[in-house]
Amino acid sequence: MIATHLPILQVVIPLMAAPLCLLLRRPRLCWALSLAVSVIALVIALLLLGRALSEGPISYALGNWSPPWGIEYRVDVVNAFMLIIIAAIGTIVQIFAPRSISHEILPSQHTLFYTLYLLFLSGLLGVTITGDTFNVYVFLEISALSTYALIALGRDRRALTAAFRYLVLGSIGATFILIGIGLMYMMTGTLNMADMAQRLQPMLDSRTALAALAFLGVGLTLKLALFPLHIWLPDAYTYAPTVVTVLMGVVTKVWIYVFLRFAFTIWGQEFVFTEMHLQDLLVPLSLIGMLAASTAAIFQRNVKRMLAYSSVAQIGYMMLGVSFVSQTGLSGTIVHLFNHALLQAALFMALGAMLLRVGSPLLDDLRGIGRQMPWTMAAFVLGGLGLIGVPLTVGFISKWYFILAALEKGWWLVASLILLTSLLAVIYIWRVVEVAYFQQPDPNTTPVKEAPLSMQLPIWVLIMSILFFGISTKWTAGLAERAAAWLFGGGP
User: Fold this and answer.
1) Which residues contact 326 (CB under 8 A, 6 or more apart)?
2) What are 48-102's pLDDT values in tens digits?
């Protein structure tokens, strides 16, 4: 039955579609193929989540080699939720992409964009679904190499510099991760995550184990862009084409998931947080990242760069949730993976629609655009309210969990800092609102018209999702709580 092979089809279909896309050459056909593959990936992810909720974790042995001898794909509530985030954002991006890339990517490179996107998609899905630690590295490289090339497609020459910087730092992070995995393999003799988790426990007091944890910690925090290892992110987000920036927002969330997978199901929370006290390092770094990045966002004249620093702050929120080492905090992190994916995609897409008409992301060039592009700017405002954490939006749900987790610990100062960074978000979102609605456009510029329907539709699907999941939380927050409980149990 085809249902039995859904885990491998999740990765194989986009991986096989990538070279086919390159052979098709025609951008419209490539777009149709990419959109179809993204929809199929989303449907498979939803089916896998349904099975994981009803049947428990799903194990798929490649080549009929039973684990731990062969490679295993393993699906549980946590990574099924992550698969949905990746596939859903990919599908929305593909609907938005044609008009956006027509302005931001050279026509001769459109086919290349869709090919790289499919490789990117298969890499992220593979990282998420695999139960083999070395496969994490393999799929890491597939997604990373395609990401570097996608950033370089930007017409601004600074995109090449941003891509190169990301390549250098990303390669350093990948090397650290590979060394950590190699040390773990040396100790346990296995690459299967479930088997490694069992074999690793008697060896946790060895120097090799400490070195492996250190290498993995540095590598993963560099890939997920935790302060101060975030220096590659602002330029990459700013100079990449808008659709690539949206996709890159998913990358950091996948690496937060990988961090959770290694910390809770392989190493175990008792060792990582009780014995090694990793939260003593993560808490200050997360808080400093939230404050510093939010403050930096206030002073940006480039709205795209402003949103990039905002994303660094949101990564701080998610890692702070992990640092609470509580089910409430971890639930906040997992639900914010989904919520911020919606918010970030909506805001960057709205800005991408403005770029199509105005041609610039600078604040000075967006004066009066609220009256010229009312629907697009309304979407940006609603997305901004979600980023701030206003009630009835998904951002409020996330911050509610983080504040509750802080109060459960008795960390009143941390709870106050969470509220303070939300107020900082008010400032930088208001700067855009003020320019768009309360300043007159330059009389020497040509008036612009509203963005086309093909761009408005995906933006407003995201905005409606932000409001819907901010009101009805049983699907996201409820699932996040279940996933957090599963992680705190250490998995199967």
Assistant:
1) 405, 408, 409
2) 988 888 888 888 888 777 777 778 888 888 889 899 999 999 999 999 988 888 8
Domain count, the chain: 1
In the numeric block, the tokens 């579609």 are attached to 17
Residue range(s) defining the domain that contains residue 284: 277-487
Q: What span, in angstroms and rounded, lies between the C-alpha atoms of 112 and 99?
A: 16
Asked, for residue 184, whether it belongs to a domain, the answer is: no
Classify residue 386: in a domain, yes or no. Answer: yes
Around 25, how many Cα atoms within 13 Å sit in the side-chain half-sphere?
1
Question: Which amino acid, 19?
Answer: P
The Cα 483–Cα 491 span in angstroms is 10
Q: Which 8-state DSSP code applies to residue 46?
A: H
Domain assignment present for residue 436? The answer is: yes
Which residue type sits at 387?
L
Per DSSP, the residues of 272-308 read IIIIS-THHHHHHHHHHHHHHHHHHHHT-SBHHHHHH
Identify whether the C-beta of residue 149 lies closer than 8 Å to the C-beta of residue 115. Answer: no
For the entire predicted model, the pTM comes to: 0.91
Contact 77, 52 (CB under 8 A): yes
Is the Cβ–Cβ distance between 230 and 289 less than 8 Å?
A: yes
Angstrom distances, CA of residue 213 to CA of 271, 476, 491: 10, 31, 19
Residue 317 lies in a domain: yes
Half-sphere exposure in the Cβ direction for 214 (13 Å, CA) = 6
